[in-house]
Amino acid sequence: MGDLRGLLDLADMAVARSEGVLSIDERKSVAAIARRARLRAGYIGEGLVVALAGGTGSGKSSLLNALVGHEVVRVGVVRPTTTSAVAAVPAEGVVLGRLIGDLGIGTIVQTSGEKQIVYVDLPDFDSIEQAHRQIVNEVLPVVDAVVWVFDPEKYSDPVIHTEFLGSLGNYSRQFIFALNQIDRIADDARSVAMDLERQLLADGIEDPMVVLTTAQGHTDVGDLTVAIEERLDAKRTALSKLAIDLTQVANRSWATSDRLVDVRAGADASSAALAAATFVSLGVEAFEFAKVIDAEGTNQ
Ligand SMILES: Nc1nc2c(ncn2[C@@H]2O[C@H](COP(=O)(O)OP(=O)(O)OP(=O)(O)O)[C@@H](O)[C@H]2O)c(=O)[nH]1
Ligand SMILES: [Mg+2]
Q1: Residue 232: is it exposed, middle or buried by C-beta count within 10 angstroms (0-12/13-18/19+)?
Q2: CATH 3.40.50.300 at 48-220, yes or no
Q3: Which of 52, 64, 75, 182 to mutate to test the pocket of ligand 1 (most atoms within 8 A of CB)?
Q4: pLDDT per residue over 197-228, tens digit each?
C-alpha cells in the first residue's frame, strides 16, 4: 500500500536538502507539487472517504447499509440512533490514521465492499450552530465527499437552507444531495427532487448533484453509488497524475544534483550527493505509488 503522506514528506525533505544545490525555481517546482496535494480539500490518502450527514431520521444509517450491501450500522425508530461517528471500512483496508480522531469515530466496522471507499455515518448534531462549526472545521477538511441526506418531509426546512447550506457554497464540489425515502412519494419524486434542486441553487450551491434513493425495503441506491464511484475514479486519476509529476520532477532534480557531485568539492559535493540520493528515493517512491494506484484502479 502506498503512503501519500510519506511521499509528500519525502518531497519536502528533498526540497530542504537541495538548498544550495538546485536553483530556487527547480526547488519551487518540487515544493509546489507537494503543496498542491496537501491543499486539495479532502482525505490525504488513497481511497475515498465519504461522510453521510443530515437530519435525524432522514436515513443516513439505512443508506450506509444499502450502499455497502449489508447491515453494518444500526437503524432505528427511536431518535437519535447514531450517537457517535461510525466508519465502515472495506476489508482491503484504507488506513484511517488521523481520521479517527479528526472525526471522533467511536466505532469501526468492516464491510465486504471491494472498492476502496470508507463511509462515515455522522451522528445528528445537537444544534445547527454546532453542526455548522463541526462540518466546516472538522469534517470537510478531512473527507472527500459529504452526502447530505434529506427525507421528503424535511428537505425544505428553511433552517437547513438559510442558516446552514446557505453559507457552504464554497464547498459545493464536495457535496452530493440524496433525496431519500423515495418509496414513500413514488409519484412525486421528480417534482420534489426539482424543488430541492431549486432550493439548493438559491442557497448558492453551484450545480448541485441531487440523486434519488430508497434505503429500506426495495432499496435503490444505484445513482448514489455511481456518483460516489465517479469521485473515487476522479481522485485516483488525480493521485496518479500527482505521482507521475513527482516522479518526473524527482528524476530531473536527481540528474542536476548528480552532475554537481562531480563538479564540486568537499562539503559542497557531499550536500549535492545527499540531495541526489534523496531525489532518487523520491523518484522510486513516487513511481511505486503510481503503480499501486493504477493497480487498484484496474482491479476494481
Ligand atoms: N420507507 C422508508 N423508510 C426509510 C428509508 N430510509 C430509512 N428509513 C426509515 O427511517 C427511519 C430512520 O432511519 P435511520 O437510517 O436510522 O436514520 P438516521 O438518519 O441514521 O437517524 P439518526 O441516526 O437518528 O440520525 C428508520 O425507521 C428507517 O427504517 C427509506 O428509504 N424508505
Ligand atoms: Mg443513524
Answers
A1: buried
A2: yes
A3: 75
A4: 999 999 999 999 999 999 999 999 999 999 99
